[in-house]
Structure formats: C-alpha cells, structure tokens
Amino acid sequence: MTARIIDGKAFAEDLRGRIAGHVNRLKTDHQLTPGLAVVIVGHDPASQVYVTNKARQTAEVGMHSEKYELPETTSEAELLGLITRLNADPKIHGILVQLPLPAQIDPTRVILAIAPEKDVDCFTPGSVGRLAIGLPGPVSCTPLGCLMLLRNEFESMAGLDAVVIGRSNLVGKPMAQLLLRENCTVTMAHSRTRDLAEVVRRADIVVAAVGRAKMIAGEWIKPGATVIDVGINRIDAPEKGPGKTRLVGDVDFEGAKAVAGAITPVPGGVGPMTIACLLANTVTTASLINGLTPPRDLTA
Ligand SMILES: NC(=O)C1=CN([C@@H]2O[C@H](COP(=O)(O)OP(=O)(O)OC[C@H]3O[C@@H](n4cnc5c(N)ncnc54)[C@H](OP(=O)(O)O)[C@@H]3O)[C@@H](O)[C@H]2O)C=CC1
Ligand SMILES: Nc1nc(=O)c2c([nH]1)NC[C@@H]1CN(c3ccc(C(=O)N[C@@H](CCC(=O)O)C(=O)O)cc3)C=[N+]21
Fold first, then answer.
1. How many CB atoms sit inside 10 A of residue 52's CB?
2. pLDDT tens-place string over residues 143-159
3. Domain 142-272 adopts which CATH fold?
4. Which ligand sits nearest to residue 265's alpha carbon?
5. CATH of domain 31-118
6. Ligand nearest to the CA of 229
C-alpha cells in the first residue's frame, strides 16, 4: 500500500481564500481591519520558518500585520512591556509570542500577560478552559489545522484509536482534547512512555508532535492508518550541496508512506494549516472584540 499524501498546502490555500472574503467583509461593512502582532525572541529555527511564511500570508488575506524581532538577550521586563503596549493597541486583535523563549524569560508569565481577548494561540487559562469544556472561542492553531485535515479524511472519527505523541500546551494537549471531542479513544504519549512503538502500532490516527527528526519509524505504523506529522526539524542535506539543509517531520516519511493509508508531508502538510488557522483565529478575535459574531466556517 502506498499512502495518499494529504495536501495541507492546497487545503490551507482554500482556507485563506475564505479568510480573505471575511476580512474584506469586515473592512467594507464594519471599517474593521483585523491586525496581528507576531513577537519572536532569539533564533529558534522552527520559529524562523513560521515567521517568514506568516508575514507574507497575513498581508495576502488583507490583514494588518506587525512583526517584532527581539534579540536573544531581551529581558522578561522588556518583553512584558511590549505585550502591555500591544494589549492596549486598537489596531491589534491578535498577539502571537513565539515559543520557545530564551531561558531568562519565564513563558508562563508572558502567556499570562497576553490580553485574553487577543490570545490567538489559545494559550491563556480562559481560552484553554473554554476549549476543554467545549465553549466557542479561538482554538490552538496547529491542532485546529490538524483537525480540519482529519475531518476531511473521515466521515466520522468515533471509536477510532488515536495516539498523540508529545504533550506540550501548544500542540499535544489541545490536540488530544479535539480528538476526544471527535469521540476518538485517545492515548497521549511522551518522553516517559514505555514502548512507544507498541502504542503507535495500535493507532488508527497518529499525530506526531515531538521535534525529533524521523523518530517515528515506518514499521511502527498500523497498515492503513492516517498519519499527521507536526514536527518541523531542520537537518543537513549534503545531497543538495555543501552546507545545505532541509525540513523533515518527526515521522520517517518514506517508511511510513509504504504502510499508512494517508500521511501529511513536511513541508506542505500541517505547517501551512497552522498559519491559515492563525489568520482564522485573528478574524475570530477581531470580530469578538468588536461585538460581532465570528464566522462559523473558520473554527472547530
Ligand atoms: N507544523 C507546525 O505548524 C508546528 C510545528 N511544531 C513543531 O512540532 C514539534 C513539537 O513542538 P512542541 O509541542 O512545541 O514541542 P515541545 O518541545 O514543547 O514538546 C515536545 C514533546 O515531545 C515529547 N518527547 C520528547 N522526546 C520524546 C521521545 N523520545 N518519545 C516520545 N515523546 C517525546 C516531550 O515529552 P515530555 O513532555 O515528557 O518532555 C514533549 O511532550 C517541534 O518540531 C515544533 O517545531 C510546533 C508547532 C507548530
Ligand atoms: N506561540 C507559538 N505558536 C506556534 O504555532 C509556534 C510557535 N510558537 N513556535 C514555533 C512553532 C513552529 N511553527 C510553525 C508553523 C508553520 C510552519 C510552516 O509554515 N511550515 C512550512 C514550511 C515551508 C518552508 O519554508 O519550507 C511547511 O511545513 O510547509 C512551520 C513552523 C509554529 N509554531
């Protein structure tokens, strides 16, 4: 069996088209231009990829975008000061602070400083709580993107065995919540999981969000399973020339493709969906801040 390749890039393009339509309507009917501020501190390679692709696509859908690139040595007080200014800025409806942050900055303090109504990453306690009890609001961008791709694959996910590898607040935990909401039987795996291969072997749906190049082997995958690869890892690519690199996921793509039913590639899978969902969340928060009902087709 050779897996079908899930084209996240095309799906995201379609989603961005719908977002652009909503942005246009907010502009003409309500004189409202949704605005997104992205803050990056230091040089995490996955964050760099994210920022580059995001700035262009934000402009393409007609939104206002601001980018703050702060040096690795930025203090926690400086970052909190910037967030306070963005919280008060009426042009800004979404604030995204890229993780990971350098060691001198406590991510929890930063997350708690973000105005809840501008929390497009779904990081703050209120947003996380709403997601957990099933109330409407922004949903973490990457899990939302994965969910949209999965819903496109299945008429129903009820009763399927799903394993999420990784338990971060950014990806693993909210992903598990969404799969549970789809009535999957969800297993969460992490660095202390015993016999990960055996856990993965049982799964009809595998979501890998670890950050280790090709660590999920093809032989671990159940024949016919759907594999969603969230990982973004930059590895050396001497075949492209000296000093060149390329992006790979957490799954051994070639190995898994031979057994899986469907699989997302890296690049071109989850990454573009994350960006589209970030834009969708900014439309949602811009609407809510202005007392408007957010478009239903952009949320979970
Ligand atoms: N494509 C996209 O749009 C996005 C991609 N990413 C990428 O996804 C990956 C994960 O991101 P993020 O969740 O933020 O990462 P974190 O580093 O916050 O979390 C990694 C998780 O993987 C687990 N883990 C580490 N080693 C192993 C192992 N050997 N076996 C099983 N589990 C392990 C950790 O377990 P423990 O908790 O026990 O330490 C942890 O829960 C990264 O590559 C990141 O760049 C992230 C966001 C969006
Ligand atoms: N607060 C916070 N929220 C995040 O959502 C977040 C974060 N911090 N820190 C970093 C990770 C990483 N991440 C990516 C998103 C899209 C691509 C992406 O667009 N990927 C393209 C890459 C294309 C290319 O340039 O080759 C693809 O996979 O096709 C990559 C990485 C979001 N993250």
1. 10
2. 999 999 999 999 999 99
3. Rossmann fold (3.40.50)
4. 2
5. 3.40.50.10860
6. 1
